[in-house]
Amino acid sequence: MKYLKNLLLNEKFILSIILLNAVVIYLQVSGITHPVITILDFFSTIVFLLEMIVKHKELGCKGYWSSGWNRLDGILVILSLPSLVEMFIPTGLMDLSILLVFRVMRVLRFFRVLHFFPNFGQIIKGFKLALRESYAILLAFFVIIVIFGLINCSMFKDIAPAYFATPWDSIYSVFRICTVEGWYDIPDTIAAATAPAIGTIVRLYFCLLLIMGGIVGMSFINSIFVDAMVADNNDDVKAKLNEIEKKIDLLINEKNEK
């Protein structure tokens, strides 16, 4: 039992089971059926369930669910329990097909691989700092997209209903323009349904929207976000430089006193 406990608490062993389970889920989603695949799926689920039980005993219920990684694991284990129930229920007695869809969610456990990346905690810390520093800019950008989405909906909903039929469709189309991907399809569709002069004006309008939102706007947001992410690292460098300067000043003072 002690060996089993240590094995279930071994991150490398659990990571190998996660990788195995990811392969099994890939095969299942691909429509490949084989008894070995079913056995491996059952084995992975049992291992994850036992890991959850052992960690509950080690950390306690509160300690277990206080960890973000454990919350992710616990929720995914609970969602995959119907696949265990299916193994012991005669065919046709109970339809668990809807619940069994959730077992595919176990592939999300693959995100635990990120836990082994060097300085991953520092990256998450920088990401949170970047969100905190740039949320106002992101909110303002979202408001601008909504405004132009409503404007475009009122102007082009009859001409290009595929893109501007509803406010939501229009907002999505404006966001699509800001991402630059396939943006030209939208003005070309409108230009093809209008007079040449109006089509030219429409193309110019969407070019300006692309420049202001997709090029200038997105670049501005990216620069602020990246600057905020590295700010924490810059603070560490500045602190070390200040410490070095203090030591140099101390050495100079000691030399002058002699």
What secondary-structure arrangement, pairings included, does this model have?
Layout: H1 2-8, H2 11-29, H3 35-65, H4 68-88, H5 97-100, H6 120-156, H7 161-164, H8 167-178, H9 185-192, H10 196-257
Question: Could you characterize what this model shows?
Answer:
There is one protein chain. It is built from ten helices and no strands. It is flat and about 80 Å long. With 258 residues, the protein is an all-alpha fold. Helix 2 packs across helix 3.
Record field, number of beta strands: 0
Mean pLDDT, nearest integer? 79
Order of helices and strands: HHHHHHHHHH
- Overall form: flat
The percentage of residues in β strands lies in under 5%
Please summarize the sheet with the most strands. Answer: none
Helical stretch count?
Answer: 10
Could you say what the CATH architecture of the largest domain is?
Orthogonal Bundle
Low-confidence stretches: none
Fraction of residues in helices?
over 70%
Give keywords.
Helix Hairpins; flat; mainly alpha; Four Helix Bundle (Hemerythrin (Met), subunit A); 10 helices; single chain; 258 residues
Summarize the structure in short.
With 258 residues, this protein is mostly helical. The protein contains 10 helices and no strands. Helices cover 79% and strands 0% of the residues.
